[in-house]
């Protein structure tokens, strides 16, 4: 009876013990691991080391490694600067330039864009991750379009939106290979001069 009661009390004590981690903290520390190694290249041991939470703790919050990845991707998209920058007023090329300058990352742990990196392995991603990427890409392109529409006549909008998106994807990939902030700023400035001087020929683009 004593042993049974003692075991029950220990179980209750363990259940009542507060967690030493939060879901958000796990995701913030997992993002650089997925960013660097991708979903397929990341294992649970790496996530344990990065987060300081053991496997049982991770799986008390998430169902699987895929679930951690999807949650990390969602947190990255929700906290990233892209939509906030592109949603600024007034709309126009100023927002496009800030987006191109600030959306790609150049830190040691974060190079380029997690979304672009993940898209390269789309065949290996779980369906919820693919849905997240597709939905966010649609929102981001709509935000780009809104700014381009404020700067250019309708007949130029589609081509310029595609050009901005292609340039963004390219500089994100380049950031993985050559994380040079100064060179990045020079490229963005040259690209924006092309848009403003080469295409913005109407009063609306001023």
UniProtKB/TrEMBL annotation:
Residues 20-80 form the HTH tetR-type domain. Gene3D superfamilies: Tetracycline Repressor, domain 2. Residues 43-62 bind DNA. One of its GO terms (molecular function) is DNA binding. PROSITE patterns: HTH_TETR_2. Keywords: DNA-binding, Transcription, Transcription regulation. The keyword Chloroplast does not apply. It holds the Pfam family TetR_N. This is TetR/AcrR family transcriptional regulator. The lineage of its organism: Bacteria, Pseudomonadati, Pseudomonadota, Alphaproteobacteria, Hyphomicrobiales.
């Amino acid at each position: 009876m004593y042993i049974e009661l003692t075991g029950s009390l220990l179980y209750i004590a363990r259940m009542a013990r507060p967690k030493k981690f939060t879901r958000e903290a796990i995701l913030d520390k997992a993002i650089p691991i997925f960013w660097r190694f991708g979903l397929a290249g990341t294992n649970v041991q790496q996530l344990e080391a990065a987060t300081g939470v053991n496997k049982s703790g991770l799986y008390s919050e998430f169902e699987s490694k895929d679930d951690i990845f999807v949650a990390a991707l969602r947190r990255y998209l929700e906290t990233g600067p892209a939509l906030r920058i592109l949603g600024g007023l007034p709309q126009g090329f100023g927002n496009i330039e800030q987006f191109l300058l600030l959306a790609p990352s150049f830190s040691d742990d974060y190079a380029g864009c997690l979304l672009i990196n993940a898209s390269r392995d789309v065949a290996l991603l779980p369906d919820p991750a693919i849905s997240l990427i597709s939905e966010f890409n649609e929102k981001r392109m709509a935000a780009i379009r809104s700014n381009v529409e404020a700067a250019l006549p309708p007949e130029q909008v589609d081509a310029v939106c595609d050009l901005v998106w292609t340039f963004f994807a390219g500089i994100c990939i380049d950031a993985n290979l050559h994380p040079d902030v100064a060179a990045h700023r020079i490229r963005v400035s040259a690209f924006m001069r092309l848009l403003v001087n080469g295409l913005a020929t109407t009063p609306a683009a001023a």
